[in-house]
Amino acid sequence: MFSFFKKNTSGQSVTFKISGMHCPSCAMNIDGALEDEVEGVVTSQTNYAKSETIVQIKEGIDVQTLILKIKEIGYTAIEKSKA
Question: Which of 12, 37, 73, 77 qualifies as a cystine partner to 16, CB 3.0-4.6 A?
Answer without folding.
Answer: 77
